[in-house]
Fold this protein.
Amino acid sequence: MYGVILLTVFVDLTTAVGIGVFVAHILTIKRLSDLRAKDVKAITDASVSPLLS
């Protein structure tokens, strides 16, 4: 947030908003991928899954 404020003061409002939206999207993607990664199960034995043979 402070970075966006500094960009607004020193560069341009349009640039600051664009970078702020980009960073918000990156943080949202990170948060959602962390939530989904908790549900992923690793296959530990190939003989258990018939799809791998």
The mean pLDDT is 81.
